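The record is kept unedited without comment:

——
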Amino acid sequence: MTGARAALAALLAILAVLVPGHAQAWGFYAHRTTADIAQANVRPETRASIARLLRAAPLLGTPECPLTDLGDASVWPDCLRGQSWRWAYTFAWHYQTEPITAPYDARQNCSGGACVSAQIERNARILADETLPDPVRLEALAFLVHFAGDIHMPLHSGDHDDRGGNDRETTYGIAPGLNLHWVWDGPLAERAISAAQPALVRTYSASERAALGGGAAADWGRESWQLSREFVYPNAFDCDPCDGTLPSATVLTQEGIVAALPVAERRVTQAGLRIAEYLDRAFAPGAWPEPAETR
């Protein structure tokens, strides 16, 4: 790479950090990476079933939000934010923040099922129901893939009276004026994915899948809450987050960024493999249990 090109690449990287743009939870890159991991690890039969459902995309009436592959599905629910008049009722489904200063409760902040853990399970059941029309199942597919990514981002579960870090101004490297939530959504996840060796998007062995996969949505939310409590806030503020109040602003040091990379990398990988598990299960006839109220 020439000196001029290297300088341009560095400038673009800085601008990408400084200008959050329209990215939402976990950003475009991280969500698509989870989808790519899932696509590489589902059964061939599941892959074929997904391709068939995707043909129903025109019937959803969202031409401004493409839905042509699993990667599109992973970001489709965030694209819907541009049509709040139609989709605002889904916006609370992306998170389930709970205070890190109190015991975790998987049912808290989930009135009427309007939270990420409940919507993962709900949409998995819808996707598995072959009696439903394809457009209904396709919508459920997109919500499932996206929300399973969201719940693995720690600050979609952990909170310190700051809307999951949104109200904590955070300087990331040389980029001021961000917030802690955005840092974990965007630049931190993107750096972790780009630096991972081996690459995150690949076929994983059975032993790797056993070590990184498993669990249900409530378990994934508890993991994220615990990471927020034990790592994200202490790493950002160099203090016990349960001791008194936190300052409104902080600087994420280079040491703190480096320490956070394996955490972000693991969460992206777990999300992708767990999405693959849920999709394989949803497309296996009779494999999804009926809701408790119908048994």
Q: What stands out?
A: Confidence is low (pLDDT under 50) at residues 1-24. Residues 197 and 265 are 10 Å apart (CA to CA). The longest strand covers residues 175-179.
